[in-house]
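Course assignment 3, question 2. Fill in each field.
Student: A.L.
Task: Predict the tertiary structure for the chain below.
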Amino acid sequence: MKELCVIFGGRSPEHTISRMSVTSILHNLNKNKYNITLIGITEKGEWYLYTGDWDKIKNGDWEKDNEHKRRAVLSPDAVDKSILLLDGGMEKIHPDVIFPVLHGEFGEDGTIQGLFELADIPYVGMGVMASANSIDKTSTKIVLQSAGIPQADWVVVQRNDDFEKKMDEIEEKLGYPCFVKPARTGSSVGVGKAHNRAELMDALRNAAQFDRKILVEENIDGHEVECAVLGNDEPKAATVGEIMPTVEFYDFDAKYNDDSTKLQIPADLPNDTIEKIREYAVTAFKALDGSGLSRVDFFVRHSDGSVVLNEINTLPGFTDISMYPKLWGAVGIEYSELLDRLIELAEKRVR
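Answer field:
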């Protein structure tokens, strides 16, 4: 059997989403194909081998299960290629593939991917540069602009900028409403929608708590849709799904805590629009030197049906209600097979 190391948790504000995603992944992995080693990273950044009940992961109780956890570290030694177990005498685990189920900072930003590269162990997902560029929404804007992909207009704000002056620029260039986003978070963490100057100031201050760089975007009045991409050198796009929240702004709670949000798969859009979205998704993936997987998010304007790219996610959510596995399921690739393909792609990328 293949030695598969699954890593979850992490130091980002999306730590809880990682625990939700990994719980779903673990229950859908083919146990006849993989010998699974589970590494949990606490919000403080401590690494543990965890051998206890998987159902304790989702609510965080795994951290209290001292009987089944043991301090661990991934060695950067490219010859040894091992996870070192530190408590109770030195032991080593030699994974064939690593599946990092980590969202946001220190998980999708190229940092842990760099460690995997040093260790010379294949891993699921994008490489160092693609991860770094994709998690930074402003860098993504620049790369995709050069690829000719339509995007919402934007203004970049630094944490130490004079917010009053930047708000003048935002009002002149973007108007209201507008969206305020920390440049390097996902799952709508720290994101706000401003309808006036007072709300804009509040949103900027809130976003500045999560990142020193802030992206402010124009509001796009349109369908909010997502497309799943899978592959390495010849990536393919699944169908397109539409998010239909019952709240004005599809924020963190709407994504993960609100059962009223509906997903329409495939989206109720003309076929030529769906094909355009699929084409743009693959183009964006290639422009960023993608590998493995991504979920690419778009808007389709109500006014004229034009397509506007919103953002790209290099390790999208894998919870029971997440769009990425549901999109592939809609075209005949079920959850377990999707995981198999991602692991195979990780090995092929190294070869």
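Instructor remarks: The first strand starts at residue 2 and ends at 9. The radius of gyration is 20 Å.
Grade: pending
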